[in-house]
Specification:
Number of strands: 7
Strand content: 15-25%
Helix content: 40-55%
Order of helices and strands: HHHEEHEEHEEHE
CATH architecture of the largest domain: 2-Layer Sandwich
Shape: globular
CATH class of the largest domain: Alpha Beta
């Protein structure tokens, strides 16, 4: 009887602990990303908060008609995607600039129909190819630069030296399938 009670207690405890595993693993993964980033932990978290708030606010305002990607790096926000008209593009930019801790905005939204899933899949593939090239070239720590691809255009963000930026642009430009490279860097002194 005692053994059965101990076994049931152990199973109950294990089931409660297993719910914490995704939180612990997720926290460890995020901690690893932050440790390999030049941003402070506070800045990293603030960038995540900016992206979440912006996504909610932009979606609430523009709805399904728009396809807007929001990327924040040290409070410098990049908007990519498609909106139905110039008014929506302006509105998206205004929403971003009203968010606390946003330092600057690069509004690269295009006016036109939303890109198809096949284009977005290709963009994800191009992003992976550029990142893989950063790793294989080994000219700078690859995690210093964030890569965003939209409709074949590669956007490079990060807090980098001029030498790192030049190398990243050269690598991205020479990656097959990339139509254009746009620099959205903040340079280190």
């Amino acid at each position: 009887m005692k053994l059965t009670l101990k076994l049931l207690a152990a199973i109950a405890l294990a089931s409660q602990i297993s719910a914490c595993v995704p939180v612990i693993v997720g926290g460890a993964a995020a901690g690893g990303v932050m440790a390999a980033d030049r941003r402070t932990t506070g800045t990293y978290v603030e960038d995540e908060n900016i992206e979440l708030k912006a996504a909610k606010d932009v979606y609430s305002s523009l709805g399904e008609e728009a396809h807007v990607n929001i990327t924040s790096f040290k409070g410098n926000v990049l908007l990519t995607g498609e909106v139905p008209n110039e008014s929506a593009k302006t509105k998206a930019g205004d929403i971003i600039l009203a968010i606390e801790n946003v330092r600057s905005l690069t509004n690269e939204l295009t006016v036109g129909p939303k890109t198809p899933i096949s284009s977005r899949t290709n963009d994800a593939y191009l992003t992976s190819k550029v990142k893989a090239q950063f790793v294989s070239e080994n000219r700078f720590p690859a995690n210093y630069i964030k890569v965003v691809t939209e409709n074949g255009v590669v956007y490079l963000l990060g807090y980098v030296t001029q030498k790192e930026a030049d190398a990243a642009v050269e690598i991205a430009r020479n990656t097959s399938g990339v139509n254009k490279v746009v620099k959205v860097f903040e340079f280190m002194p």
